[in-house]
Task: structure prediction
Amino acid sequence: MREVAEESEVGQLFVTSLIRSQLRLALVVAGGFLIILIGIPVLLTLFPSISGVTVFTVPVPWLLLGFCIYPLVIGCAALYVRSASRNEKRFQDLIDEF
Amino acid sequence: MFSAAVDTALVCAVVVITIAVVAALGFRLSRSSRDLGSDADRATYATLHTAALASEHLREGLTASGAAKASRHLRGLLRCDTLVMTDDAAVLASDGNRSLPPTVMLLIQRVLDSGRTQIFRSAQLDEAGVPGGGELVVAPVRVDQRIIGTVGAFAPDVNAGLVRATNELAGWVSTQVELAELASSRRLLAEAEVRALRAQISPHFIYNSLNAIASFINTDPARARELVVEFADFTRYSFRRHGDFTTVAEELKSIDRYLLLERARFGERLKVKLEIGPEVLSTVIPFLSLQPLVENAVRHGLDSTDGTGHITITAHDAGAFAEVTIEDDGVGIDPDHLRLVLAGHTEGVHVGLRNVDSRLRQVYGDDHGLIIDTAPGAGTLITMRVPKSQPDHQA
Amino acid sequence: MNSELLPSSGIGMNPVVGYAALVLVALSTVLIGIYGLRISRTTGDFYVASRTVRPWWNASAIGGEYLSAASFLGVAGLILISGVDALWFPIGYTAGYLMLLLFVAAPLRRSGAYTIPDFAQARLDSLLVRRVTSLLVIVVGWLYIVPQLHGAALTVRITTGLPSWVGPVAVVVVVALSVVTGGMRSITFVQAFQYWLKLTALAVPLVFILLRLGSTGMPLTAQGAAFTADLDITGQASLYSTISLVIALLFGTLGLPHILVRFYTNPDGASARRTTLIVLGLLSVFYLLPTAYGILGRIYTPELATGGGADSTVLLLPGRIFDGVAGDLLSALVTAGAFAAFLSTTSGLVVSLAGVVSQEFFSGSVRGFRRAAVISAAIPLVFALLTDTQALAGSVGSVFAFTASTICPLLLLGIWWTGLTDVGAVAGMLTGAVLCGGAILSAALLGSEAAAEFAWLQQPALWTVPAAFLVTVLASKATRNRRPPGTSRVLARLHSPETP
Result:
């Protein structure tokens, strides 16, 4: 199948489409993650009062940065892995039927 | 330097930029179906794919068995109750929920005679003794202006869409039947290629393996069945048609089958030990480069004085290289003789070694030939060093 | 090295405990390295032995190699010193793998390359690019080994009372011997073992500490005082520093030399992705632990913040809560974990560096590889012995910034952009190296007094990474006629899924 993708002109087109969809997916996930990530210090700087809020004596910034980020990271990663595999599956279908 | 004002300006800049980036990405994402196909596109190529599947079964022409398989796919395309395919004399196949009496041919004969697509209402179906009611549309299949059969579809109410679709389907079946002749010549070519490849496996091995399997058929049928499967897998790998490279893992799996078959012959006389570092399993190596070495070790090992062959196969990390060794405790090889063999001056039993050696040198350079430590009566240790990094080769 | 900062004998720590932990870890590492092969004599095993590594194993190995001294000791130390700002380090270390997953993991595995210079050459078909990349990889590797050795010095000094130089020398000797003798025949299981050892070494003492604190009613967070206590000797990080640090950590992970080597063990691109996903899980779980140590340290070992020994928080905390044998045992466990951290990261780096060095200078022979391994381990040893122990997490941060400014543009643009040329790649890498290296060096020369004004020199990633990307793109566009002819074929290979 890779041979098809590498040698024929149509295969080249399919590959270009695949690369573009994968890049778009990666950029979207990375963009979303970075916005949230960078949004945290931005919010804390804009609204310093947030730092005073505590949950069970733990201030919110500590809670966000020390714990809540990690599920977010894993969530983004799982989303990406599923979508990237789906893109590859679609690509495979295209090539197979081709 | 980084006063509060600068910080605030920076924050605003970051917020503006991120919003712009999100907007741009969102816009592009909304059109992301463009590349790998929208749902409509996917439906289209699902249809084409079904057609391709059906066409496989029409490669023989319009036969009963082919039509039976093809009609299963084709009914899905028309989304009708029952699809019927006939040749110019009888029903070949029908797929769907109703059983058709032979009398349906009375109706279909009219299409064969007229050469035009016709629709039969429920009254006409009753008259012909076809149970179940509904309506039937039948279109002729033509090859070279000759009508060789028909395609028919039953539905509760035949509408224009179904008529058009049935017509198109009949035309498509015509084309497939015309192509059937081309396909048969292509098959002959493929068989010739496989015959050429088959010469790579030692005929002795095939003969001996089949003999060993035969000997189990009466005493241990289950084992014999297993061995036949292993044999089939082994030959499938060796007859593989694509690629000059494979991975250590694949090659080891093939060796496993090979040894299983050899053990069927030699039983406890063959003792094999395997030590594998899992990180080298993905390393790319030339196709069939380990198996001849193992074959060599088996032959030597069994020729040893006590008749029991101990073979050790290892594969492990050596920095940026993967190192594979194959060791036996058999009769060994006379180094002078070996030198002649590797230089290509003599033919004989060690020709497999030379073949592997020269391929390795050709692919990886002269530093990567086989390293063979041996002496008469002292066993043989063959070492192969392959770079892990091979961006130019793929398994 | 500065051993006056702390008393030369262990702070209330039984030296026997230290020795036992160090010897046990070194021994188990060597033994697993030699006998960690899959051995089989029967047919069923044979199938198992030739089956490629499961993502779980592989992910553990990657985690084991990645979690270095900076993670094991440095994170808690930095939380002790600078509080909430330090939490960005574990986030960056983890999220770096997210970026790796998104942009690099599957394509790089599919490239079939074993080292980054191999990838560079295959992609751009240029010996010059290969040379430059090799040079940068070697520099990055050495810079990354030095903090590991500093961590070893600290650990050995605190746990055994031996002089500082013993730790680095011991680590280098163990690593070099196992590589040179060819003893490390299977590194995957060694590294996987090290991950779980490190996790256990932090988790078990933490559980005991929390139980003890809970049962005796001693404070966990001292009504939030743990979070607000003003131990900060670094001053609050500006928004600029924070963002720049995050960029460095996120994109620096992509180019670390020992990571590609572990990905090679995955059978294909899709499993490389699954592996990375599991790595993210493993790292996330792990980093909760040093964070907890850091917070507890702010209550129970606050005096370490000012003595320059903040990195020893993790090592000393169990001994502060428990006395006698229980304290000794828990300390031994933590010490073993710390030693595993230096050993695994150092050996991973030395092996991958030796691969690059031997290919570049010794034509890839067996003897060349051994020599290269000795060189790769010895030079950072000299550096480590000559320089002072910095805050571990911080010095590793500079290495990440350097990698992000040099190797990251090559990888990202090489994988995703057809327009990259050899001239562009070299120009970008050199720009990044000069700007980032220059900034870090001048910040070091200016000293910590000028810290606040020169944040842009101390944390240069935010401007050096874009600069390197920009130069790469512009130079590539200017030399568009130098695009290698096989580009589209190489990209097709990087991105199309393998034939099943």
Observations:
- The longest helix of chain A spans residues 9-46.
- Chain A has three helices and two strands.
